[in-house]
Each structure stands twice: as C-alpha cells, then as structure tokens.
Specification:
Blueprint (H helix, E strand, L loop, with lengths): L2 H6 L6 E6 L7 E9 L3 E8 L2 H8 L4 H6 L3 E6 L1 H4 L5 E7 L3 E6 L4 H25 L1
Parallel strand pairs: 1-4
Antiparallel strand pairs: 1-2, 2-3, 3-5, 4-6
C-alpha cells in the first residue's frame, strides 16, 4: 500500500472499520477516534458481531450505498487480523493493511443521470409543443 494514501485519509465525519481480508463478511472491528499518520493509524478497536460486519461490508442497493458513503474500510492482512483482540488501543501500521476502501458518492449516478433525463424530457416537451 502506498504510504502517501494513509496521510490523505481524514477522520472527520466518517466511520472507520478494520476488516479481515480473508473473512470480510464475518470478522470486523470498529475504530473509535482514529488518528491517521504517515505510516499508521492509532485507534481503540472494538470487535463487531458477524451480523454487524456483514451489514457494514456488503452494499446491496442504492440505500446501502448512500448510508455507507462516509465509511472507510481498512482490510487487514489475515496473519495480522488473526492475532487481533476483541478490544484494544493499538497502532495499525501500513504494512499490516492489505488495502483501503473509501466509499464515495458516485456523482454520475446521483447528479448526471437525473440531469440528463430532465433535459431530455424538456427537449421532448419542446418538440411536441412546437410541432402542432
């Protein structure tokens, strides 16, 4: 993972989760008050239940996508994730993280398509009213 990516993360108004890369649907931790630095994250981790982890890591429809747009998922390497306790204050270094997933709003689907549909409807109405 690029070291510069860790510095760019901002914990203002977001929820940060740590997920086991080998078992992303069943093993997850919530990070309370995370502090992102150049090569590590310092936070208090709390183990989530399997149901909570599945709800957090699976995006099924547009509602889930809107609800999770302020989520950051840190995928921990399986060897590191297997040694994590249920609760602890710890530092997670960048070499222990396999990938970072940031859920962001898709502007094409949320703004572009409705705008395109609206302009198409206006054009259609204009053509209908001017032909008669």
């Amino acid at each position: 993972m690029a070291k510069s990516r860790m510095e760019k993360l901002n914990n203002k108004g977001v929820s940060v989760y740590l997920v086991d890369a080998a078992h992303p649907l069943t093993r997850g931790w919530f990070l309370s008050d995370p502090v992102f630095e150049a090569n590590r994250v310092t936070a208090f981790i709390t183990r989530m239940s399997e149901v909570e982890t599945m709800e957090m890591s699976v995006i099924r429809n547009n509602y889930d996508a809107r609800q999770s747009r302020n989520d950051i998922l840190l995928y921990a390497k399986p060897k590191f994730a297997s040694s994590l306790p249920d609760t602890a204050k710890m530092q997670i270094f960048d070499h222990q993280i396999e990938k970072i997933e940031v859920c962001e709003l898709n502007h094409v689907r949320s703004i572009g398509l409705p705008l395109l549909g609206c302009s198409g409807l206006v054009t259609l109405l204009y053509l209908i009213t001017n032909t008669y």
